[in-house]
Amino acid sequence: MAWLKTLAETYDVYTDLAGVDKNGQAVLLPISHSTFNAQIEVTIDLDGNFKNSKKLDKGSDVVTIIPVTEDSAARSSGIAPHPLCDKLCYIAGDYTFYTGDNKEKYYEAYMEQLRDWVESNDTHPMAKAVYQYLGKKSLIRDLVTNAVLELDDGDKLTDRVKIQGLGQTGANVRFIVWGSDMPQEVWKNQELYKKYGEYYQKKAGEKHLCYLSGKIESCSDKHPSKIRNSADKAKLISGNDESGFTYRGRFTAKEQAVSVGYDTSQKAHNALRWLIQKQGYTRDESAIICWMVNRDMKVPDILKDSVNAYRDIDDFDFDSFDEDEKPVVNRHDTGKNFAQQFNNAINGYFSKIKMDDKIAIIALDAATTGRLSVVYYDEMGGRQYTDAILNWQQHCRWRRTVRMEQSGDDIRRVTCECTPAPRDMALAAFGIERSGRLEADSKLIRATVKRLLPCITQIGIRIPADIIRAAARRASMPQTMVDYVWYNDVLCVVCAMIRFNYEEENITMDNFLSDNVSDRNVLFGRLLAVYDYMEQRAMFEYDENGKVRDRRTTNAKRYWNAYSSRPAKTAKTIKQNLISYEKKLSDFELRKFEEWTGEIMVYLAANGFDNTALSELYLPGYYQQMEYMKKEFQKKNEEE
């Protein structure tokens, strides 16, 4: 239950933001408030007289903050009205007349509850105005007269007419109240939030021991939903099945299993909902959030690649970086200028994190339709977090092209050494290329991302070996993907993962080939790169613009999978198939390829030129040799 206590502490830190709408950003809900999507907006004056009304389009600002009770926030059936804004069946006194469906008890329960608030010492003029207007029982008539609702031929409200895809009878209604100087939206009024909170606090029920605060206080057994989004019905805490033995066996009552104070539950759930909307990773039916608990400071998004992880941090001004104002044209550019500026910015940011800062990470998954589970939770000190993030981003990186997240339709690409996002790693291991991008089963993706979280937040934990093996197998099948997806989204990502797990092997971008001249896996990877690039240089013809006229799969890529299992035998087959291509090479090209082949074969002869299956280390060997050869030929072209 530590995660609930931490979330409640987070709410206390940001309590001054409760109910405040800042530039259209996510709003931290006040206690005893929730949200719904409104379909109809009704305007009245302070005396309860109807002024105007309108339908709300689905794309407009329809998410509405509303006061709720414990019962109404958790309602799924029965009569449990919201205190102010609600469905037509609760607030329309003429609902039965216009639909034929007897909902008088719903309306009476709503009016009785609203009257109790209006007659209390914590009332508000806007609540009084709504009560006076709805007491006239003319809501649907006014909406029909104003052409917001439509009747059928029998003068009944019909659900054939939809508002935001919802039948008219199920529409949610919110109110605007005209004051002395201007109209006021009831869902944005801070004073109304405060008054209702004070009113409902006095309606507290039976008191028990709160397991989080350790105090005797009013506890709740009906905890909020709508955690991941406004339509989410899944809950983190629930135990309402007294006949299905949800908690029976060890306990005789559900309060013995868990007892959480109402205020604490409201704070924790509201803070969690706010954090997810504000900075959470919400994909593949999961939600993952990393945040600073004790103060208002953004932390890097560990679910993004190392470049985009800092995108939402105010101190990072990406536009000031000199490199890459335009998409990268030269793929051999190492992006050192960008990397230097980026690393300086990171060091400046991390210097602001203090020893006593507290950072928490939580991952939620949908256990069932109505249940959420906490699949990962961790909290740590500020320096512990920065050390872990820097270790991850420094050792699990490889040069590849990433898309910078930008506003609008602009696409900005950067080619540099960076750490892939955990989702990129999962797709590299289990994805299938479709229409130029990798796709995979959402359950498999979120399970893999969850397994990668400890590797990011805890120094010393390696990426699970089965994930790397799966990614290496995908990289060994280049013929199943288009070249860019295979090279940038699979091979480069796999090499980054290998570098992280083989940290002690000194896998770096600069000295990898010279530091691993005795590793047969690396040597066989280099040999495969020589054969692959030799055929590319000999086979492809270029037009006057430098573009390839004809592109066919090379022998190296066709035999790649077999090569990884039986390298010596397959290498001879590939070499034999390349004899006819050697005639198409220039003297310089042929000399360089023979030089590289001879050098590698000398080392292989001494370290095992046999058919033992290769480990994943052959992949960075292939990559580094390929990049080295391309640079050599580029230098030759520049000299000429």
Number of contiguous helices: 24
In the residues, how many domains can be counted?
A: 3
Which stretches are poorly predicted, pLDDT < 50 over at least 5 residues? 323-334
- Secondary structure category: alpha+beta
Give the total of beta strands.
Answer: 20
End-to-end distance, in Å?
A: 69 Å
* Major sheet attributes: 5 strands, mixed
Shape: elongated
Annotation keywords:
single chain, 640 residues, alpha+beta, 3 domains, 24 helices, elongated
Account of the protein in words:
The model is unreliable at 323-334 (pLDDT under 50). By secondary structure, the protein is α+β, with helices and mostly antiparallel strands. The protein folds into 3 domains: 31-199, no CATH class; 280-505, no CATH class; 512-639, no CATH class. 42% of the residues lie in helices and 16% in strands.
Task: Give me a quick take on this structure.
By secondary structure, the protein is α+β, with helices and mostly antiparallel strands.
